[in-house]
Amino acid sequence: MPWNRKHLLDLESLSKAEIVEILDTAASFKEVSGRSVKKVPALRGKVVVNLFFEDSTRTSNSFSLAAKRLSADVMSFSSKGSSVSKGETLIDTAKNIEAMGVDAFVIRHYAPGAPHLLARHTDCSVVNAGDGSHEHPTQGLLDIFTIREKLGKVEGKTVAILGDIRHSRVARSNAHGLRKLGARVILAGPPTLVPPAIGKALGVEVSHDIDAVVEQADALNCLRIQFERKAGRFFPGVREYAAIYGLDDERMKRAKPEAIIMHPGPINRGIELTPELADGKRSVILQQVSNGLAVRMAVLYLCLGARGN
Amino acid sequence: MPWNRKHLLDLESLSKAEIVEILDTAASFKEVSGRSVKKVPALRGKVVVNLFFEDSTRTSNSFSLAAKRLSADVMSFSSKGSSVSKGETLIDTAKNIEAMGVDAFVIRHYAPGAPHLLARHTDCSVVNAGDGSHEHPTQGLLDIFTIREKLGKVEGKTVAILGDIRHSRVARSNAHGLRKLGARVILAGPPTLVPPAIGKALGVEVSHDIDAVVEQADALNCLRIQFERKAGRFFPGVREYAAIYGLDDERMKRAKPEAIIMHPGPINRGIELTPELADGKRSVILQQVSNGLAVRMAVLYLCLGARGN
Amino acid sequence: MPWNRKHLLDLESLSKAEIVEILDTAASFKEVSGRSVKKVPALRGKVVVNLFFEDSTRTSNSFSLAAKRLSADVMSFSSKGSSVSKGETLIDTAKNIEAMGVDAFVIRHYAPGAPHLLARHTDCSVVNAGDGSHEHPTQGLLDIFTIREKLGKVEGKTVAILGDIRHSRVARSNAHGLRKLGARVILAGPPTLVPPAIGKALGVEVSHDIDAVVEQADALNCLRIQFERKAGRFFPGVREYAAIYGLDDERMKRAKPEAIIMHPGPINRGIELTPELADGKRSVILQQVSNGLAVRMAVLYLCLGARGN
Lengths: 309, 309, 309
Prior knowledge:
3 copies of one chain form a homotrimer. By secondary structure, the first copy, chain A, is an alpha/beta fold. Helices cover 40% and strands 15% of the residues of chain A. Chain A folds into 2 domains: 16-135 and 292-306, Rossmann fold, CATH 3.40.50.1370; 137-288, Aspartate/ornithine carbamoyltransferase (Rossmann fold). Chain A is built from 12 helices and 9 strands. In chain A, helix 1 (16-33) crosses helix 12 (285-303) and helix 2 packs across helix 12. The longest helix of chain A has 19 residues, at 285-303.
């Protein structure tokens, strides 16, 4: 059994065997979610803390539900209206919560590296739920899980990640994980959002020609344009973006027959991809969400040592 | 057993037998709330999602507690700080939550018909917790439950609903449910808030003479003046409203000896009714709250098919 | 068994035997928190309501976790976005929640005496989680628990409470509890924040000479300067405060070898005490947090009559 870590901080530092261990554990938990009584007692009496310094109802709900499905208790702690707003440091906040006898922190933070800092100062497990533009390892894992499930395997497959690569922790986690499992990864989008240096840093290909990329890809993972983070400053307008870099039926005619379309959500319908594609038969977007639950159950289960290894 | 629906969207489309089935099921759950250990395992492993697009701590708490008393897990999702504020549609939001493996949506929405729309797009159960000025079926049911409990039966009783009928989903749900069970319903209040067309649309009587109504009613259900929704624009002032349409001891001298006073809360004390009446022996206001829990347990239990039919 | 109260409203009205009963019960619950499965079924099926009219993530989390560790369900109710903002009174709010069949209110309120008022109007248990500048009894109890644990006993020990005594409910609860258990209590700080009348009112000593106090104390409890409540108006500046009234290594050279340093958190590092002292070997600050959980479990357990007396 390759897993003997207490934390999941990023995919960059995991081995191929560790990633496969998470995916296999997630596969067994996916079966639980299909049962009538969707609970297992693996983490009964444990407390998982959602420590979110950025809003994300979707991710925090997914982790909460994963923890509850393992019979853990969940405590949610956002930076608003808390002692953080009274000037307390991240470590002081965490040490105080830890002193209440909790077992794991699921942390989302705007600062890259915040989960790593926390892991050095706590005896609890730490799971990174997104740190700045660095990594979002469980999103990477659920994307990889979905690719493996839909395409049969990851090795040798070509995965294109489209859009705002520059600011994307999702792209980074996907690139690291997919490379380790032997996939070919192409980052594609406008030159302003996909600088060549990123490809070099991550050891993957870069392209600005979406049509060429669509022809080669087995999986097309469209990232969200994060207008709320002013991503709109990096291209002339949404119509231009949709026309040149967005996915639509016309462009998808070039794609392989079995190619799948992914998106981490929430979708800007009509920009990254058309509503028809988002809801069409190539789309595995909702399966990604379902798989996210299984992956997060697996991560909490393994990091909290519930397997007893 | 008449119940074989998956959703509770309104009272207008229910049969008399279906309403009675909910009331009878609620009566058996009311007994659970009186026990020392107030839990039954009926919905263990199920997940109920509170999807609230309008603030309502009171109603969402009542549903949450009802779900927990049935041993379900509860996930609360408000439109603030969520992906809804990132421009996602209701259906996209719901499909994403559904993909996490949840079982029921309890939805409150400012748009009439939103729960019906949701029900057409999800495999989960949908319970309407108030949609605009359309319906609020569980409030209607708990009011009817309370009338049945206090007056012994509903058929043949005269129920007056007083106040801002124009904007009230509570009035609509009450009118539909009470009529089906054979009660006489009178909607009463200022002509600006009780237009005759409403009576015609709902098939019930309309009156602007509160004194005459008080004399005839077995139950007086005072609606809340919703100042936060600018209901104050429909009458000259609160003192005039209280004097002409509010309930006080003087006016209640005309009432039948056994007539009960109801209010869905929160009360504007001194406007819709005096504090003395709100806390007096005719008042069944707090029993309405208690019965709300039993009714919501029954609705979740029946819609989620926990009875096994 | 001395405990037969339903409420914990303050320490002023408790007997020595009652305080000791809470401390002893807490000691047995502290053992539970050290187990792998940190739950006991004592309050299964009970509902504990956090009714917070002031923000306090830390205290409400501690109570929530204490309640969950006893297997109770928790309902959180803050004054924001609730019917309170629609003008409802505290008592109406509480009576409505009570009608849902809940068992205990944990109330924090800006008005001194609000928990006492509530206790007179409800059949539920009421636990004061801080009322204005009056009392914060569970904070007092956890401080006293920590002193007893670290120093072996309370009787005959000298406890100094440093800082903003004038506005501090923590100081008041500590003073009452410690006196009853036979400790010597010294309130110390700037004359503007420690008026002599307070010492007289609480029956304890007052000093403005921190060096002299440090020499005598077995426990030094540093209160937080509440800048968010404009406590800064009572002294010239934070550097002056730190120099004259703050704890640092230099000043602590005068202290007894076994003297402990306490703080209710969150700490203003470098003002009330230096980071070195906060994290040093005399500091018992995180143990206070851990003990808070055990104390709150004990209080809920005793007030809800789970012992069966």
